[in-house]
């Protein structure tokens, strides 16, 4: 995310991991052209404007978020930084022909912490559809336990020390063009047909390694 030169733009919009039409019909190219090309880009552009010429521009995106998460006077900076990070993480949580079931160590851990896959899926759907207003639904490793958490607006478990494995964007801009007000239909479709369990497994393995480092 960060470039070597102090005079260049410090934060950049990461490329999508697939083509804009690759998630259709679950998420259309039209939605992605606005969601990625307008919304996500705006967060990155706003962030660069806000931190231009300040010491904050020297930080990585992750450092910046942790630094501003508890600073009310930096709320606008945090919101744009977190939205830049959250969206990049959301794109990586999805893939064409995704969904299905987790495998390996993550499958075992989900069955241990939720009882079975169906209970996990039910809770993910409930948190995602129940999040009031704009926000996100996350699968996180919190300490040694997998949990589903909802966050409002730009808030993100990453900034408060949780390890994120998957996320679903439930802001209206994520689904309104394709599903209008039917958020549950969007969430069910994303869970069953787009979640990238290989990515989640990679994040789970990384989180377990991080826990071993004091
Ligand atoms: Fe979004």
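^ structure tokens above, recovered residues below v
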């Amino acid at each position: 995310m960060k470039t070597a030169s102090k005079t260049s733009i410090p934060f950049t919009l990461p490329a999508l991991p697939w083509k804009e039409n690759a998630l259709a019909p679950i998420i259309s190219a039209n939605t992605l052209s606005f969601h990625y090309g307008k919304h996500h880009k705006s967060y990155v552009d706003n962030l660069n404007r806000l931190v231009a010429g300040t010491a904050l521009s020297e930080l990585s995106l992750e450092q910046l978020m942790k630094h501003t998460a508890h600073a009310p006077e930096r709320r606008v900076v945090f919101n744009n930084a977190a939205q830049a990070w959250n969206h990049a993480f959301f794109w990586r949580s999805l893939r064409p022909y995704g969904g299905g079931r987790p495998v390996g160590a993550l499958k075992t851990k989900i069955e241990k912490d939720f009882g079975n896959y169906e209970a996990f899926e039910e809770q993910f759907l409930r948190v995602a559809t129940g999040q009031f207003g704009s926000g996100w639904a996350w699968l996180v490793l919190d300490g040694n336990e997998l949990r589903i958490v909802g966050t409002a607006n730009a808030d993100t478990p990453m900034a408060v020390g949780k390890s994120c494995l998957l996320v679903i964007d439930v802001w209206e801009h994520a689904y309104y063009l394709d599903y209008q007000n039917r958020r549950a239909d969007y969430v069910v479709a994303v869970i069953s047909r787009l979640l990238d369990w290989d990515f989640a497994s990679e994040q789970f393995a990384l989180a377990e390694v991080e826990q071993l480092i004091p």
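The chain has two domains: 29-92, 104-212.
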